[in-house]
């Protein structure tokens, strides 16, 4: 049915869209408990037709559904339906992760995130991505899947021979910066940071663009915080309102610096550093940035575990490079990029000799996305009804009499936008 309505050249599917909205409305109305909602119960009991040996009425092809949704993730309705499957149907999520198709699903999802300017739609798509990368086996595989061709819709830079894991990190880091400057949504920031953290826990051969993007983000926030400090130094003592405002911004930037240092520090563990020499190279290349951080007036930042680990690693590898260079007796010698990588690899082997028990270094924790059932029910009931009203402009809705769940009065799309 969905294939019939969606797999066409047209970009408008009024009957399919309204059918999905009706389905979502029935699933998400009332309590999130399956005992109170027979529609949700039936939805959660759907079985994958591809795995079913005998004929059954309550079946659907999960692989076909993923392919259809992957072609339309730039639309709000498809993102809502996918989010519903991801959060409510564990078997669907298992099927998706076990046979994750990067061309048909992962890249379309990343493109939807990259091109989206709606914070609510971003939340749905990021939540879907989070549910995928929070699985260790998937996060690990993403770093070994290499993209041989350039991604045409990514316009910031020409990227080739980059892993899917590094690609996700680059796109999500870009969204973090965009959220800080435009949306200022705490939920988006939390989702983005936890996605990057989960991927960094299993990083392998991080692409230089991913590590450079992380360092540049840190540099940006360090400069922002330094600018705020300069403004505070110039500010008159009696201007309390402006001082409170600037102190709030400074606190926010220092928190951002802490978070990025934490992400970098993840890669400096005995398990990950030997696999990611590019991270150490990027840190060495930004030595001046970390020299300025070493003299930062905020003692909590200076003494944080992540900051001290990074500074310690930088000091160690600087010493390794200096020692190797001093022992080189060539008359003409150039410190090339290749030679620096050799020094990093050698230093990593000396610092972290291989041990028989690798489980000691396996990540013990990572972030998982868990939906608050009560808040989700209140949000979805209202949000989906608003979309229904918006997508049925041919209906003569009596807006003054129409009431959404939880007694929230509905308004037309035009009124809502105003």
From TrEMBL:
Lipoprotein is among the record's keywords: yes
Coiled-coil annotated residue ranges, if any: none
A cellular component annotation (GO) from this entry: Golgi apparatus
GO biological process: Golgi organization
Pfam family, one: Dymeclin
Keywords: Lipoprotein, Myristate
Organism superkingdom: Eukaryota
Similarity field: Belongs to the dymeclin family.
UniProt protein name: Dymeclin
